């Protein structure tokens, strides 16, 4: 297949990814990341915002590298371009991994089917394969898949150097990839010296960020053993990343599907690089579980060890594609085993357990045989497959699951934009604004949209994973917002018949109701104790005539707390 044709397929699948998944800007983790970018652009912005003052706990050159670009290109435009490139690199990395693992006349088919299967990013154990917005982990994923490709080709030096360079953008995911590469080198007898030289090269490439991190004690923000309060709050805020004991049965079943696909494909066609990578995944997960659930080791949580699972679905996509082609029936053979294999792979590709588990049972009963695939069809078929798949998957998503993709590349498309734009124009630059302490798109976007510091939000608490001082301050601020002790009820494992998730959601409801019922004394206390100058309430919340109303529309009211 010519490079021109490959690029055409890649462009088609990149467009398909956006058609299926959409694109967002300014919300979710952007609540944190865009604040860091604003501080890089103008150190005088967001003064007094506790999250931004703790930016050192989130070491990365990601925002520093954006500064010269943002001075010439609007952030919204830059991020859209970056995300298009990130999606293309992810798909290209998946394709390259398929060709490296399964070279030969059928490699293009394996690559094409593998790319098709990652068009819908799934979450395993709360860990998304690829987010629908620009983050340092989304930018890092494609290059790290290429690092795994270099590992398959036994070019360990180059692989570790690339991983070290990615460390400058997203240290944790780079460390996970380095562990996988280390196991690949360990299993390679002829190049086992790479288990020593590889990490050294990786650290050398990462040294511009790694050295300052070590010098400043970036991982020393939480003592060992950590206080029970820190363990509880991290469990409340980020249990899906770090605490498997709180995962639901559905989460475990979703994780089982790619592992079964990998098991079936490796039984049919063994791959030592993949087996080495999976050993690295297992090793890292064991460290993660022991570190967080048993030892309560802060470093284990800082490294986000369980997020190594992000690589598993990509390995399953590639190996499963090869297994599917090997089991697809040739003319005259039984059709049912191949159909069962295809349904299992389809279920994995869409995380539909109602498809995956019946298909899994059928596969084990029918035992599709692996053999050399039949002669591949013409090159037009991969393209036709993508053209057909995109509208089909989109239609299923919209009409069956009722989840149309969001295309929200600008903040002025969100609720609350009018209030944020007014705040940027009229509030003092040193204002500290109190927002409702719960998840809304607009309050997640407020820092960037209004260019003003915030008192704190519920989302900010996750950054307390890296700093005990920040976590305790965040907890006090949340209690001050609601005038209650919302976290005390979660301090015991006695669930009263409710799951952990249900209890956390009930706690969030208490926070929300407490803030909505704020009285004048509590709001004045936020000003005298923390320096809060303004407060925002929804238009449907009780009015506060005791304070000066600066802005009001059909969505929100903004009050001045200080004279």
Automatic annotation (TrEMBL):
Top-rank taxon, per record: Bacteria
Name listed for the protein in its UniProt record: DUF6798 domain-containing protein
Record flagged with keyword Transmembrane helix: yes
UniProt cross-references to Pfam families, sorted A to Z: DUF6798
Domain DUF6798, first and last residues per copy: 418-480
Keyword terms: Membrane, Transmembrane, Transmembrane helix
Transmembrane parts of this sequence: 77-97, 109-127, 133-152, 159-187, 193-211, 249-268, 274-296, 345-366, 378-400
Record keyword rRNA-binding present: no
InterPro entries: DUF6798
């Amino acid at each position: 297949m010519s490079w021109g044709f490959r690029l055409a397929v890649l462009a088609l699948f990149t467009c398909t990814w956006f058609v299926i998944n959409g694109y967002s800007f300014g919300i979710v983790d952007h609540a944190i990341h865009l604040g860091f970018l604003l501080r890089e652009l103008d150190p005088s912005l967001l003064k007094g915002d506790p999250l931004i003052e703790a930016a050192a706990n989130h070491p990365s050159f990601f925002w520093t590298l954006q500064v010269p670009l943002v001075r010439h290109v609007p952030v919204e435009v830059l991020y859209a371009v970056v995300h298009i490139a990130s999606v293309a690199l992810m798909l290209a990395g998946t394709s390259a991994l398929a060709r490296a693992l399964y070279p030969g006349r059928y490699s293009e088919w394996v690559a094409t089917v593998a790319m098709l299967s990652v068009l819908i990013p799934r979450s395993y154990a709360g860990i998304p394969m690829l987010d629908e917005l620009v983050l340092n982990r989304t930018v890092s994923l494609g290059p790290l898949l290429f690092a795994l490709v270099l590992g398959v080709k036994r070019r360990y030096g180059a692989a570790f150097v690339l991983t070290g360079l990615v460390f400058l953008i997203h240290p944790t995911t780079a460390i996970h990839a380095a562990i996988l590469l280390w196991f690949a080198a360990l299993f390679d007898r002829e190049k086992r010296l790479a288990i020593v030289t590889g990490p050294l090269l990786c650290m050398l490439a990462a040294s511009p960020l790694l050295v300052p991190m070590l010098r400043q004690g970036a991982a020393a923000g939480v003592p060992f053993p950590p206080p029970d309060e820190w363990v509880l709050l991290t469990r409340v805020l980020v249990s899906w990343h770090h605490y498997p004991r709180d995962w639901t049965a559905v989460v475990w079943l979703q994780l089982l599907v790619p592992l079964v696909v990998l098991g079936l494909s490796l039984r049919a066609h063994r791959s030592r690089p993949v087996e080495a990578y999976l050993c690295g995944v297992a090793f890292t997960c064991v460290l993660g579980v022991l570190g967080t659930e048993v030892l309560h080791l802060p470093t284990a949580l800082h490294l986000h060890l369980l997020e190594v699972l992000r690589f598993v679905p990509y390995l399953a996509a590639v190996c499963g594609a090869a297994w599917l082609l090997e089991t697809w029936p040739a003319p005259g053979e039984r059709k049912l085993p191949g159909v069962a294999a295809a349904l299992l792979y389809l279920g994995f590709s869409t995380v539909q357990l109602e498809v995956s588990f019946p298909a899994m049972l059928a596969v084990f009963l029918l035992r599709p045989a692996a053999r050399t695939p039949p002669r591949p069809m013409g090159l037009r078929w991969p393209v036709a497959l993508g053209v057909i798949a995109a509208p089909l998957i989109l239609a299923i998503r919209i009409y069956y699951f009722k989840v149309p993709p969001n295309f929200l590349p600008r903040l002025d498309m969100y609720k609350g934009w009018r209030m944020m734009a007014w705040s940027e124009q009229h509030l003092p630059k040193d204002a500290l604004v109190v927002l409702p302490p719960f998840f809304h798109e607009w309050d997640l976007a407020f820092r960037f949209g209004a260019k003003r510091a915030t008192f704190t939000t519920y989302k900010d608490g996750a950054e307390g994973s890296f700093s005990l001082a920040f976590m305790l301050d965040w907890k006090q601020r949340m209690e001050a917002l609601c005038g209650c002790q919302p976290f005390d009820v979660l301090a015991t494992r006695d669930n009263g018949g409710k799951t952990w998730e249900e209890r956390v959601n009930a706690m969030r409801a208490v926070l929300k109701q407490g803030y909505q019922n704020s009285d004048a004394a509590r709001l004045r206390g936020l000003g005298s104790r923390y320096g809060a100058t303004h407060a925002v309430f929804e238009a449907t919340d009780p009015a506060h005539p005791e304070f000066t109303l600066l802005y009001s529309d059909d969505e929100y009211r903004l009050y001045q707390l200080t004279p």
